Amino acid sequence: MLCYNITGMRTQDTNAFQSHDHAACSSDALAEAERLCTQKGARLTPVRRRTLEILLEGHRALGAYEVLERLSAEGYGHQPPVAYRALDFLVDQGLVHRIRRLNAFAACVHPGEAHAPVFLICRSCDAVAEAPGQLIRAAAEEAAHALGFEIERLNVEALGLCPTCKGAP
Amino acid sequence: MLCYNITGMRTQDTNAFQSHDHAACSSDALAEAERLCTQKGARLTPVRRRTLEILLEGHRALGAYEVLERLSAEGYGHQPPVAYRALDFLVDQGLVHRIRRLNAFAACVHPGEAHAPVFLICRSCDAVAEAPGQLIRAAAEEAAHALGFEIERLNVEALGLCPTCKGAP
DNA sequence: CACCCCGATGTTATGTTATAATATCACCGG
DNA sequence: CCGGTGATATTATAACATAACATCGGGGTG
User: Distance (Å, rounded) from C-alpha B138 to C-alpha A14?
Assistant: First the structure.
């Protein structure tokens, strides 16, 4: 997939900290999610799809209970497992990332593409951007192998100030 | 500080995955912690010190409630804030790290030394080692600056198999 | 068609982690 | 001796997460 938004920027290069055509950004992600699920034989059911849409509304991480509130207001189940199951599914499919620092979940903006995401979390406005982390992944592999450790999953989260909030703190 | 254990290895090079003189390893860390607190005018009070000792007993991360259980059995307070306060203090002082993936805390083995720790968490035996992460830190800074993001705190956690468990899973 | 299987959804109940708010205590300087 | 300060303790509750079990519907098989 390679597409352009109104600024002429490639979608995969957009991020939470740049102004961008968000409607396109999120509908692209959704379409891509559908494609991936079909391809893998995974079922993007209504709750799951709606959960993804909710997360795609903004480049923010939402807690499971925030998601649940939204879902239950729209007629889905009212109990925590409803949200957790949908979120777990989406995380398994690589469509959503879990942000541990926030105990929260954020939609992946370009699922399917090989990426080792680094999460940049603004402590002021709570926006979450994904930066490319291939270099970091490589550096981590190297450090780990020096100790004989085999990395299976890597999680990198940075807390700080986004460009906007840096200007106006 | 530069010291040697029975294998002739420098303490700062030991890690959770190597057999080492653990008594020395932890008493060194404790002594260093004391030195750092004195230097900064921070008070390593009995609860705080005992909390650190408990975490230093093994290269494992303990949950706040595990720590609390130990503390309360030894006559300290019985309520969660007792453990959380001590742990928060130790984290602030850089004597303990928080392992978010495990919702747990692990003692820092070589506090004071400039280090950008990468945590290697064995999913089989729960041991937690710190690997040097300067390169990773640098790579992250670079990726972040490309988006105009200012990193204040960086957390890198890898889940996988330690050398021992890799051999015998 | 009847049946069963299975995956998805729903609910109840509870477990686990973390913090707000408040009170007390010990020490130190004035 | 008094008041301020930082540490500690307690109560209560918020916030996050999962176990266990019930139900429902679609798809294949006898």
Answer: 22
Query: With bands split at pLDDT 50, 70 and 90, how would you rate the model's confidence at A109?
Result: confident
CATH class of B11-107: mainly alpha
Asked if residue A42 has pLDDT above 70, the reply is: yes
Instruction: Report strand pairing: A104-107 vs A118-122.
Output: unpaired
Q: Which of residues 88-117 of A touch strand D (CB under 7 A)?
A: 88, 103-104
How many whole angstroms separate alpha carbon B157 and alpha carbon B134? 14
Q: How much is the pTM? A: 0.89
Q: Model confidence over B91-125: pLDDT tens digits?
A: 999 999 999 999 999 999 888 777 789 999 999 88
Could you name the CATH architecture of A1-169? Answer: Orthogonal Bundle (1.10)
Q: CATH code for B118-167? A: 3.30.1490.190
Q: Do A157 and B160 touch (CB under 8 A)?
A: no
B43-80 per-residue burial string, b: 16 or more CB within 10 A, e: under 16: ebeebbbbbbbbbbebbbbbebebbbebbeeeebeeee
The rounded percent of chain B whose pLDDT value lies above 70 is 90
Q: Which residue type is seen at B64?
A: A
| Sequence-ordered list of residues with C-beta below 8 angstroms from that of A18, at least 6 positions apart, any chain | A7, A9, B147
CB contact under 8 A, B151 and A17: no
Provide the CA B60 distance to its chain's centre, in angstroms: 9
Asked whether the predicted pLDDT for residue A74 surpasses 80, the reply is yes
Helices (H), B41-79: 46-56, 64-73
Residues 6+ apart with CB under 8 A from B69: none
